[in-house]
Structure formats: structure tokens, C-alpha cells
Prior knowledge:
Layout: E1 5-8, H1 11-21, H2 30-52, E2 65-70, E3 75-80, H3 87-94, H4 102-113, H5 117-127, E4 138-146, E5 153-158, E6 163-169, E7 175-182, H6 197-208, E8 215-219, H7 226-230, H8 237-249, E9 252-255, H9 272-283, E10 289-297, E11 303-310, E12 326-330, E13 333-339, E14 351-356, H10 365-370, H11 372-395, H12 397-417, H13 422-428, E15 430-433, E16 436-442, H14 443-449, E17 457-461, H15 465-469, H16 475-480, E18 484-487, H17 490-498, E19 501-502, E20 505-509, H18 520-547, H19 577-585
Parallel strand pairs: 2-8, 12-14, 17-18, 17-20
Antiparallel strand pairs: 1-6, 2-3, 3-7, 4-5, 4-7, 5-6, 8-9, 10-11, 11-14, 12-13, 15-16, 19-20
Helix pairs in contact: 2-6, 4-5, 11-12, 11-13, 12-17
Amino acid sequence: TTPVETLEFQSEARQLLQLMIHSxxxxxxxxxxxxxxxxSDALDxxxxxxxxxxxxxxxxxxxxxxxxxxxxQRTLTVRDNGIGMNRDxxxxxxxxxxxxxxxxxxxxxxxxxxxxxxxxxxxIGQFGVGFYSSFMVADKVTLVTRRAGEVEGVRWESDGDGxxxxxxxxxxxxxxxxxxxxxPADADDQLYDYxxxxxxxxxxxxxxxxxxxxxxxxxxxxxxxxxxxxxxxxDGEQADAEQAKDDAATPALExxxxxxxxxxxxxxxxTQAEYTEFYKHVSHDWTDPLETIRLAAEGTFEYQxxxxxxxxxxxxxxxxxxxxxxxxxxxxxxxxxxxEELVPEYLRFVKGVVDAQDLSLNVSRxxxxxxxxxxxxxxxxxxxVLSTIKDMMANSPETYATFWSEFGRAVKEGLLSDFDxxxxxxxxxxxxxxxxxxxxxxxxxxxxxxxEGQEHIYYLTGDSRASIENSPHLEAFRAKGYEVLAxxxxxxxxxxxxxxxxxxxxxxxxxxxxxxxxxxxEKKTSESERAQRxxxxxxxxxxMSASLADEVKEVRLSARLTTSPACIVGDTHDVTxxxxxxxxxxxx
Length: 588
Ligand code: ADP
Ligand code: MG
């Protein structure tokens, strides 16, 4: 067999471990949530694996999580009999951090750490550190694991200080045991005694109650009831005594969690705190969700969904390989993570669970893509998410503002891909505008403020708010008191060209084509004056046209400028300068 080896953590992993050891994250209890969450995932994965692979030699007779305490050794063990890991799994899953965005995370962390540890905590909360949170409470962690269907077990051990040992484990049972060698007791020990069953019971109840697998812990056998001794004539006294002795040898097991799937419980029976912990379990996020959404359908095609809008965008929201989708369950049985068929890409930040009652447990990705029921659920989820955001906009503008600054750029992608919901998406968008420096405006508000005689929703695209504000294109609009939207996101350049308008009012760029701002009356009175000016400037214009022939199509007199002498205007169907820059960057 392979000998025991000492290996190094990948450098990102090492940095995160350092953080955990020095425990800048104040709520230590969360380590247990993370370990139980991993154990639960491992049980889900095993059950799924046995559906897929009938030949897998695995024991699924009593899937559970178990907590074991050794007061003398000061150890706490979190054990599951789930999927387990082989050597390669352990090295890649525990020794490295594969999460996309890790590098950026660490850069941010480094920048913030010296100044403000609250910011660092905040970042950890955003990133989530999973298994490594063990090192908040333990100075050494031993992991013994065996992958279901494989023969050889693995023993991994580390004190979190840069290296770990890994080698074979004799007689490892199927699944994973994480043995925490708890740090020495300190002044806080009353609060953080993880060898105390009462403490563990409380923490499991608070963070992991909804886990659908039993989380068990041995409890002291209850003292034999006094009445037994007081009634010696009772039948079967002998047997009772025997039983009591047995109980003392194999202590009773208590199940600490209620195991009820939150999405199946009546709405008014679930507290926000329970939703929050569930969110953290499914999303691997450490921050509270911004919004919780429930929906259900009954009848021939029954399903329940419990969805969440996070309060912060993940670091990889705009990376190519970002994971998306919600968890899919069928009749309470976990089927898959990241079910992309249930949410469109522009809502990739939505987290949660869909539990469908009428799908087969063997459902595959290929089937899902064509399944009519899945398409129906997806359509409803989208509508529900969009209407939730709309309500948020109306009823809690601050929450909406947070949402929009985190996810607005992603939502706007939907304007290009989801034609059915285009109007609904436009309704929930907001944009910086010349109306108010601080506060972005919705299109509805813009339209309500439109001046008499104003026909279009005017906008200008650009790199930044400042460059837009300083643009000579705005001058005439300012003079007229017309509001102009300042579209600064790259995505704006793309959707604005393919969306005609909002609720019957067209979008019009202030930098394209002939923008006619005069009213009919003004036109009449200035007709002769204009003709005179054309004549006056004819020589200048033709001379400029000739000398700029290679750069511009035409040089013309304009009424749109008030203080600047000249500006460059695009044709109605021209690509804007920003978009041109983008195409160039993409090599097109
Ligand atoms: P996350 O759960 O967010 O993926 P963790 O740090 O908690 O991150 O765990 C890293 C990975 O290690 C998990 O994704 C899983 O593949 C593996 N793992 C952790 N604990 C267990 C376990 N008890 N059984 C099997 N695999 C596990
Ligand atoms: Mg985890």
C-alpha cells in the first residue's frame, strides 16, 4: 500500500487556512453548519449515485450524520456514511480551492485586512470557507474517508499550517469522518464548548434543522425511572433491568433535527431565520439572503419552489464558467445541483430548490432539456422572480437599490435573450439620469416626468457618468429641460439597439441622427432664419467637408449645441464609439 506522505496545500488554500486559524470570523458556531452541510451533500450524492449506477456496492440502509464527543480527548467527530472520497478526491477537494474568483477574493482581502477586519469578515462571509472553518475551533483536524464502492480508505491530517499528511486508512467505514481536535479551553469556553451535548443540540437546531437526513448524537441513558423500583410486582421486571443495562452499554441516540423540508412546510410555520440558514446551506454563501421567494403549484403537475435572491453578487457572476441554477429535487429526493434548465442565464444568481412531484428519479440532463413540465416551471419561476423584484421596487426601494447595484447588469442581459418578458424586465430596470445625480430612475418614472411635446426617451451611452455629463450632445437637451438617461454599462450598448421602446415610447440616442427638438411653431418662425444661416456658412461648411472628407460623411449646421462649437454625431444605425471599442477588444 501507499505510504503516508506529507503534501503542501495550494497557496490560495494556505492563505485561507491562515485566516481561519486566526479566526477573524467571529461566529465560530458556523463550523458545525459547514461540516453538517458537507455531510448532507455527501449523503445526497450517494443516494443519487446508487440510482444512476445499479452496480455500485454501497450501503444505503441507514444514511445519517452522527456527532460524537470525547470529553477527555477533547475531540468532536462529525461522521457520515455518504459518498466518501478517495485519495485523489481528498487531494483536489480538500488540498486546493477550485472556486472561481478565489484569486480576486484574496487580493481584496489583502487590501482590506490591514485596515479593517470588519471588512475582512464581510468578505469571508461573501466567499464562504466551508471545510476550512473547522480550523476556527480545532488545532488539528483528522479526516478518515472511504469512497462508496472502493476498498481503500484514506487518512488525512493537518494542523492547518501549510502542509497535511495523507495515507491509507485501515478498515475505514464507507463515508467520511471529520475528527476535530478542539483548541484548548479558554475564557470563552462556556459559550463555545463543543464537547457539550447541550451546545451541539442548540447549534444543530439553529443552523441545520431542515437537513433531510437524521443528525444523531449519543445521549446519556436516562436514569431508570424510580417507579420501576417502587413497583416490584410489575410484569417483566427482570427484562426491564436487562434492557436498562443494555442501554447503558449502547447509549440511546437522539435525532437533533426535525428533518422537515422547508419548502413543503406551511408558509406561516417557517421563520425567516430558518429560511436564512437553509439559504446558506444551498448557496454555500455566508451572508443572509436579500429576499426569499416561495411558490407552489398543485393539481396534475405539482411542484414547490423555495428561491432566494442573494444580497451580494458572487465574484464570478461575470465569468464564463460561473455555475448557475437551482437544486432540483423529485419528491424530496435530491436530484442535482445547478439545474440550468430551471433558470435562464440572466437570472443565474437566483439560488434555491425546486421539488417536482411528477418527474422520474432517473431524470437526466438530456430529458430535462426537452421536458415540458420543466419548461413550465421555468416560465413561472422567471415571472415570479421578476414580479418579486417589481414589488421590491415599489415597496422597499432600498432593498431594490441594493439588488439592482449587485445584479442589474446581469438582469439587463435578459433584454437580449428573453423576448417574452422584455416589458417586465424593462419595468424593473433603473438607470442613472440627468434628472437626479444620486438616484437612478425607472423608465416608468422617466415617462411620467416627460415634458410636454417630448416624444422620446432620450439616452446617451458612454464609459462613465462623467464623460456623458460633459458631452456636447447633451447641451440642447439641457437647454430644453429634457431628461437624458446615462447608460454606462457595456451591456446597455447591446440591448438598447434591439429594444424599440418602453410602453410605447421609443428610445432615442441624443448622439445619433438628426435630433429635432423644435416644436412646430419654433420651426416655422426660424425657417427663414435658418436658410439665411445656411447661406452664410456655406463656404465654411464645404471647405470643412472637403478637408475632413476621410473622417466624416458630412459637416452640417446644428441647433443642438449651446456652448460647444462642434460635435461628432453618428448615423441613426451606426455603431456607437463604445460598442466599436468593445468589438475591437473582442477582436472583431
Ligand atoms: P463546498 O461545500 O462549498 O464545496 P467545502 O470546503 O465545504 O466547500 O468542501 C469542499 C469539497 O470537499 C466538497 O465540495 C466535497 O466535494 C468535499 N467534501 C467535503 N466534506 C465531505 C464529506 N463529508 N463527504 C464527501 N465529500 C466531502
Ligand atoms: Mg461545504
